[in-house]
Amino acid sequence: MKRPLRGALSSMALLTGLVLTVSSCGFGGNKTDDSDPNHLTFLAPVYSDGTKGAWDAIIADFQKANPDIHVELQMESWDSINDVVRTKLQSKSTTPDILNIDAYSTFATDGQLYPATEIVDAAVIADIQPGFARNASIDGTQWALPLFASTRTLFYNTELFAKAGIASPPKTWSELTDDAKKIQALGGGVSGYGLPLGSEEAQGETSIWTFGAGGNWSDGGKITVDSPANLEGVQAMKAIAEAGVTQANPGATNRADVLNAFYQGKIGMIEGLPPTISQIAAKNPGLKYATAPSPTKTGDPVTLGVADHLMAFKKDGAKAAAVKKFLSYFYSAAVYAKFVSGEHFIPITESAAKALADDPVTKAFAATLPVAKFYPSNNPKWGAAQGAIKQQMGTIAQGSDPAAVLAKIQQAAN
Hints:
alpha/beta, globular, 18 helices
């Protein structure tokens, strides 16, 4: 779901009995551990300051009930995890047994993953909301387990809006640009709109604009990056960057930096996620803000939906039983609902949705799912396209032609 959803890794105490390794250099490639069917390596991204602590507690509780199984956790930032995965998959001994990331399809089509039915109980499969299960499937076989969902919506600073004389949030791109100009004119180092096109998650911001033009990243089994609608969305994104109403150097700005500037009252409008609500409460509870549907070309609402996934690599096929025990435990209603609530995302199981019915984030963001479009994560070529978007899209804010950039990304996908 780089989706972030993503913050800085915090320092947490190791829980008693937990076998845990957190380092940037990997699991160490211990062949003895790798050959042990009850020793699991787990690579996961950092979603928030609490992510590591949440996994620590889950693993510790699981190991108390299953003392014969050890789960070795490594966490990486979303800015680095894709590079770490590429390095680890070069050798079976360093390939993680369990991986939490967004795209899974390349691994599935290469025959590297267990089918989902082999790594969780049947009750878990039945509990997953059907749309998310389909998004985790290829040709009728589910290969990954959706972790949780996130959508995007416009967050705007109501105090800056009032100072700029703006009565209501923008619905269209033209209104967005006009409002951003008014906010920028206030001075004091305030930017009108936060445009994060750095390598952390440029595909997220870009998708909001391409979807807002009626575009898609795929058509059936074909990746369609350089379509006319996508081009129109990227051209509009370039136009607002060149209008001088964003933060400085948007092509090299990551989303975390834009979010932090918004929390500090230095940006008038951003595209935010479910965790944005709790982050504002923690970092600047006095911030006056509201939310509204993401502006689009015509004003018709559409948003980006992100579903990150858990998957298991079969390697020599000996660890399926241990993986199944751990992941089935994780998706039990009480454990999973607590994890989702702590990370402030939208649950993808029916049981957790019921458990979190009164959760403020679930109540506020679940309603955006009907107008959400998702990354084509079940297309094996999407991983290459996504990587190219991260590397290439920021250059449109540095003078590159949108059509040429989309052509490069399409070539990478092909």
